[in-house]
Amino acid sequence: HKDRLEEKHGIRVSDVPRVVITALCCLPSQLPYAGKTWPANPCLSSTSAHLREEALVPFEVSNDSHEDPWKIDTAFRVQSIPISGKGGTIEHVDPGSPDWNKTELFGDSLRSLLKPIAPLDDVPLSKLGTISLVGAGPGDPQLLTVAAFRMLQEADVVVCDRLVSQEIRDLCKGEILVAKKYPGCADYAQMEIYRWIASGLRSGKRLVRLKIGDPFIFGRGAEEVIEIERLTSGRVTPTVIPGVSSVFAAPLLGGATMTHRGVANSVILGTGYGRNKSEPAIVPYQPQTTAVFLMAIGRIGPLCQGLKDNGYPVDTPVVVIEKASCSDQRVLLADLNTAPSLVSEHVIKPPATIVVGEAARVLYPVDRFTQGLVDVDTMPIAQHFSADDDWENRVLDAVVQ
To answer: Which residue is catalytic, options 181, 205, 211, 323?
Structure first.
C-alpha cells in the first residue's frame, strides 16, 4: 500500500525505516498494543504467535479523507520482534519467494501453516468421506443449478468462499466453514481449506466445497482436485458440479453485451492476479474483441494502464458490474482513462466483473447514459432478484419435494 500511504496519508515510506504495512488479516491472531488488542484474526484462526508490545512504536498518521475505505487508524515503526523464541526484524517477504524459508518473519508458527498435509493413508477406504466441488453461481440463489441445491441440502459440511452470498449459505443444512481469503493471505487460507477437507474426509463426512461462480474458471478447482487426489492417494474422486460463472452472468445482468454483430465477434477472459501476486499478461488490443476480467477490481489502475500499454484506445468503454445478481448489484460506466477514479469514488468492492470493449456499451449509448453509476430504473434490461419475490415458498419447496 505504498502509493496509498504516500498519496492519501502524507507518509513518505522511503523516509520511514522498517515500517510494517499489512492488512490486519495477515497478522497473527492477536496483536497487543498500548494495552489494547486487535480483533481475532479473521484468516488464520489457528495461529498463536504474538508480537511483543515493546516492539511497536506508534507514529502520527494523517487521515484527510474520512470516507477513504483504507483509512489508517494506527501505524507503527517496528523494532526487533522476538516471536516463538526467535529474534529478528520484520521485512516484506512474499510466501512464494526464494527468501521465504530464510526470513524470521513470524518464526515457525506461521510458516508451518504452508506445510503439506500428510496423506490419509491410515484411513480405510470404507471410512473415508466424499467430496463435491460445487459452483455457487454469481450470488442469486435462483441461479444455482438443481444439482448444486441438492448437494447443499445433503452435505454434512460445506466449505465455502467468503464471497458466496449469505442467501446461498442459508440454504445449507450442515455445518458451514467459511474460507477467509483476503488479499495477502490467500495461500494460508487455502491451506486451511485443505485441512478442513482432510479432517472431513477422515471423519467420513459428506463434504461440499462451494465456490463462487464456476469451480474451474479462476476458481483453483483443478488445484483442489489434485490436492484431494494426493490426500487420499487417488482413492477419492471428487464430483464436480458446474456453476453459472460471473464471466457470463455479470455482463448479461449488467446490460453489457460481450458479442454484437459488427462490433465484437470474440471474447477473452482474464484475471487481475496471477500466482504469487504477479500481474497476468494482457492480450494485445484487437478491435472486435471484448475482454472480461474477474478478481481484478483491486488493481483496476494497473489493469487499465496495462490495457493502454497494449494498444487499447484510452476511450475504450469499460463497464463494471458489482455483486451481479444480488439485490445490491451496481453498474458503473467508464472508459480506460476514467475507470480507476470512478471505481475509487464509488467504492466498488469485490465481487466485481470488469467488461472492456466497444460491445459493452451497445445498450448504453453515450447520448443517453453518462459515465458513473447507472440508475437501476434506467437500465436497458429489467432487473429481477429472488429477494423481491416469494420464490423460496413457491419454487424451493417444490424442488425439495
So the answer is: 181
**214 tagged catalytic:** no
Span 180-216, pLDDT tens digits: 766 556 777 888 899 999 999 999 999 999 999 999 9
C-alpha closest to that of 241 among 220, 212, 218, 215: 215
Asked if 181 is an active-site residue, the reply is yes
The structure's pTM equals 0.69
- Count CA within 13 A, CB hemisphere, residue 61: 22
